[in-house]
Amino acid sequence: MMSESEEHGSLLEKIIEKIHEYKHSSSSSSSDSDDDKKPKKSKKKKLFGRKHPLHHVLGGGKGADLVLWRNKQASGSILAGVTVIWLLFEGIGYHLLTFLCHALIVFLTVWFVWSNAASFVNRSPPKFPEVILSEVQCLKVAHIARKEINEAFYTLRNVASGKDLKTYLMTIAVLWFISIVGSCFSFLTLSYTIFLMAYTLPMLYEKYEDQVDVVGEKALIEIKKQYKVIDAKLISKIPMLSEKKQH
Length: 247
Description:
The protein is mainly alpha-helical. Helices cover 76% and strands 0% of the residues. The longest helix is centred in the first third of the chain and has 34 residues, at 4-37. The chain is extended, with a radius of gyration of 35 Å.
């Protein structure tokens, strides 16, 4: 039989264990309740409701890598080359046909000299790249071009049909804005500016994505407010549009 001291000691140990278990359960429950009370962080809204990363939106291939400057050397080389071509045409006054002819003269001369000099230095001549367009590739390009041209004609037909005055006014406003911009710059400078924006803005957006998303969301909210004001004061008073809204 166990002595009274041993029974007292075992009883004391059980009481201490129960106290520890109670403290642990209460602390864990309180921490859980505190976690529940903490406000959950809402997911940040992406610009234009984008759900995928920008690299995925741009296609996720080598083109996306170049636009997002994953390879800075390759992207910088392309930008420098396009800039040099723009300076040749816009600054020096080079003509496109002259530039193409001079470029072919330099290319063919270098290739011709290299091919003949290779036999004197006991080296194999350079292999001219074989570029052969397959019928499938040509048909694919023609199919894409046909689809885009048909979409453009379909849009123009809808705008000119007189059924949607809202789309007509928006189209006229965009064309008027483009005509004003075109009168300020030459076609080459305008094309270079568009290329420069398309080639640098995605990289800058990816770098400062969080800040741009916040500013963009505020801008979109403000644009929607201004559109509602214009709709209430002007567009809703146009008979054609007001009749369509009633129907």
